[in-house]
Amino acid sequence: MADIAESPAPETSPLRSQAIDRSLDGARARAEHRVQRFLDATTELIIEKGGLDFTVQDVVERSTQSLRSFYQFFDGKQHLLLAVYEDAIRAAAANGADAVEIGVPFSDPVMDGPVIQQASQAALEAGVTPQSVLDEVPGLDVEIPLAVMTYYNLVHHPGPERFAANLQRAGIAAAILPDLPLEESDTWCTAAAAHGIEAIMLAAPT
């Protein structure tokens, strides 16, 4: 059988490389601007209200930014998303965030609203996996705790011990599993504690 020579990967022209770099720089600047607007709006509301008596929608309206517009802007430009989100996390840390939650996309995010559901679907369609998210965390190099929020199916599939170990290796400090009932959380909490992962539990105000 004759050998089939592999075709060399096409080279990216210098002009195209420069265009891609400019696109990334512009996208990063816009992401940092949006993060700063949200932080400024939150600070203003805390001062005005004398505390945390306001909602995310109040912050969105005050910042004149739209979470939905952010996702619409990047629709079809998934190649920019990863770099932008990394820089958004760094911008949040640099501007005083005490911790950052990183959402791990899931196919049926029933505990989330329509914007995060849309974001999860876009991420999954772009090929994002739990492991691909964790692989990027060590490169963030921020000096604040990072937590992940996802659904228990993604823990159950590899097993709590393995999932907790993966979080530990990535440098994650905590995990939120909103669909895991408190009465059934012992196995996960034990595995998380063994690997230095804080198991953050949610409680309804009612």
Per-chain topology:
Blueprint: H1 14-49, H2 56-63, H3 67-74, H4 78-94, E1 100-103, H5 114-125, H6 130-136, E2 146-149, H7 153-156, H8 160-170, E3 174-176, H9 186-194, E4 198-200
Parallel strand pairs: 1-2, 2-3, 3-4
General description of the model:
- The chain is α/β, with parallel strands linked by helices.
- It is globular and about 50 Å long.
- The protein has helices spanning 14-49, 56-63, 67-74, 78-94, 114-125, 130-136, 153-156, 160-170, 186-194; strands at 100-103, 146-149, 174-176, 198-200.
Tally of DSSP helical segments:
9
Task: Give Rg in angstroms.
Answer: 20 Å
Q: What is the N-to-C succession of helices and strands?
A: HHHHEHHEHHEHE
Mean pLDDT: 78
Proportion in β-strands: 5-15%
Task: Report the end-to-end length measured between terminal Cα atoms.
Answer: 72 Å
Shape: globular
Major beta-sheet overview: 4 strands, parallel
* Range of helix content: 40-55%
The total of beta strands comes to 4
Low-pLDDT parts are: 1-7
Structural class assignment? alpha/beta
For the biggest β-sheet, the strand order reads: 1-2-3-4
